[in-house]
Amino acid sequence: MGNGKATGGRAGASTELKRNALGAPALVFIVIAAIAPLAACAANIPLIIGHGNGVAAPADFVVVGAVLALFAAGYTAMSEHVANAGAFYAYVSEGLGRRAGAAAGYLALVAYNVLTVCTSAMGGYIVSRNLGFELGLELPWWAVAAALWVVVWLLGYAGIEVGARFLGACLVLELVIVGAAVGAVLLQEGPAAFPAASFAPSSFASGAPGLGLVFAFACYLGFEATAEYAEEARNAHRTVPVATYAALALTALLFVAASWAMIAALGPAAAVAATQGEDAGTLLYRIVQERLGAGFGHVYNWFYLLSSLACWVSAHNAASRYLFAFGRAGLLPRALARTHRTRKSPYVAGLAQALFGGAVLAVAGAAGFSPYAQIGAIASALACVGVMLLELLCSVAALRYLGAHAGERGFAYGRFRRLVAPALAAVGLAAVSVLVLANLGALTEQESAALNGVLACVMPAVLVAGYAAARWLDKRGALPDPVHIKVGE
User: Fold this and answer.
1) In this structure, how many other beta carbons lie within 10 angstroms of the beta carbon of residue 450?
2) What is the DSSP letter of 52?
3) Which residue range(s) make up the domain with 43?
4) SS3 call for 233
5) The model scores a pTM over 0.85
6) Number of domains in the chain
7) Bridge-partner residues for 233, per DSSP?
8) Is residue 488 included in any domain, yes or no?
9) How far apart are alpha carbons 238 and 243 in whole angstroms?
10) How many other C-beta atoms are found inside a 10 Å radius of the C-beta of residue 466?
């Protein structure tokens, strides 16, 4: 589906993404880099231990990973039949109709663009701070962010293959430092230091398990981006499912190992106490320094810098592809669907996305908002809610789509993948949605109940407004079917 010649756009302009550019390993690199595993381990795991359900942090990652694996069953089945850069937009359209699909597309468009506000604010702050630590350069975070927005756009402009190589290199470095820290704790403390209580039901139910699950879910944000690159993947019907499950399995293993090692390094009681202090975010850094030596502390700072930049690049790529898909569908200016003649990168959408992200950052920075505790935290929470709702919608869409095609050629899925997994995923994601919205203040780091109440309504409001806009367009015969839009040159 979705192959042919382009319609619309400037005469002779390319509107095709680069075909057969990504294999499964490259796609895995891209989506795991979006998760920023080093930054996620450093920032979120201490929050789960100190403010969630303590030593059960590894179990939280197992539970959320299992829910997302169920989601991936239907999601990847959809990807085998629908290849579209606007993944959620196309999948929900196929399963729940064009109006619901367009609403999901608008939600994805907002969620991923908001995510770039988060990654650019936090990235500018982290890079600025670490350059100060390592080189003594005192640069304002907003100036660093402005300069790096140019770098991020240029990496997108250079083409997906260049971006994949950069993200792959960053990911390897992140995995090296986290793996070295886990290995050092294992060798120095021994297997007995890793408490079996981390997986005991009584430990999981202690403290605030809902909060633990919320922060664990936030760590996985980005793994679902595999399908957005289906048009650029080799043998997408096979590559996307393989990359999705590989990315999910690797990140789950990493988060379980890292959280368990952080508990083992200090001991259960001491780990909970240490992660309730103001310097909880430095726990992994301190473990690296103490277990591997001061030199590795400097290495950690540089790798953390690269982790934040890689996450930023991945978020920009994902947001750009939704802008591209909406431009191609005519729901946004068609100029956004133009791609580079030779590199086939969505450089116009990328430029629009960078200008949007930079403008929001400039306004927020000028207003005096903190890049990390306010801009980054609020934008991250909104993106988390948006993606969570998209995954819930997609699970329901997969349930209907796969059920409607059961028995047809190419749809020889077993009952579990076709029916049970999407249904269980929908139930699990609905439960996570309630937990996230009920604990939104923990994600936004804002104490105002009124503000958090307003923020909790933002993404559902986008979904409702998107559906209203789609209904208006549909009545006028102007609502496209994203799956059957012809693409090419």
Assistant:
1) 8
2) S
3) 29-475
4) strand
5) yes
6) 1
7) 22
8) no
9) 9
10) 23
